[in-house]
Amino acid sequence: MNSIDIESKKFLGQPKNFVSIFNALLFDGKQVLKPEYLKDENSELVMNVSSKHVDIIKRYEDGTYLDLFVIESQSYVDPSMVARVMEYESVARMRYIRQNFKKHVPMHTRLPMILTVVLYVGESKWNAAKRLSELEIIHPGFEDMFNEFKLNLIELNTNHKYNTGEKATQDFFDLLRMIYRKQILKEDLDREFNRDALYFAYVVTKNKELLNIYQESEKGDVKVCRALDEMFEESTNKGIQMGIKQGIEQGIEQGVERGVKNTQIKIAINMLVRNNQTLEEISEIVGLDLNALRELKKSI
Hints:
The structure is a single chain. This protein has 300 residues and is an alpha/beta fold. The protein is built from 10 helices and 7 strands. It has helices at residues 3-12, 15-27, 44-50, 81-100, 167-181, 195-205, 208-216, 225-274, 279-286, 290-299; strands at residues 38-40, 56-62, 65-74, 113-120, 153-155, 192-193, 222-223. The protein has a 5-stranded mixed β-sheet, with helices on both faces. It has a two-stranded antiparallel sheet with strand order 6-7. Helix 6 (195-205) packs antiparallel against helix 7. 26% of the residues are buried.
């Protein structure tokens, strides 16, 4: 288990943070799902599905309404993610049936809803399939028979701003957007960020400035943006200076090349005027090809 997996369980596994991910995707941050109705799922079902790399599984209970929620936290683009989520949910449903019904499912029985959210925390663009139809070949004439499946995907490296309704996860979401876009909004310069969100953002991005801020801070919320803004500005300035340096070096190199070329031409003209050597001999001495010497001779 890598550090991102460990920290995602610690940070996203907290009930308030966990439900806020779903509230962000489904209800634009409105607190429809409540953390007090969330229960850890420790059944054999979780052991089976977790072995297939699902990160966090919890059960939501509100009266008779039961859901099994899954968060899949990915730090890289997985081309088969659609198929993996389908497998997770199929395994979960079959486990539930085997554990709750001895022989068969009674007529009119309704199973708990299973909802999977893929939280993508990588910097590169998600360029894998988001629907099963983007992964499988659908032959002409079979479109109406094909059963579509869609990922519930949250991408933190896009321009879309999610509203989680919970400070810790909102701070984490916004920190990643700032790091990936290398841009701090003016109104965020003095904003204070949740310390746990700051550390999780460091684990995900490996940004050393975030780690420095975390280590220098004590308990409580932390101001981050001014240090990040200075880092982004310094990085931009370094890029500009490097571009200027490369431009100067390239200009000098081109100038030297032009100077050498002009010298070759002058020597060749003098030799052609004397007319005591063949074009082949002049070409070998000055380094100009025969076609160039012939054109030069015409212009004299």
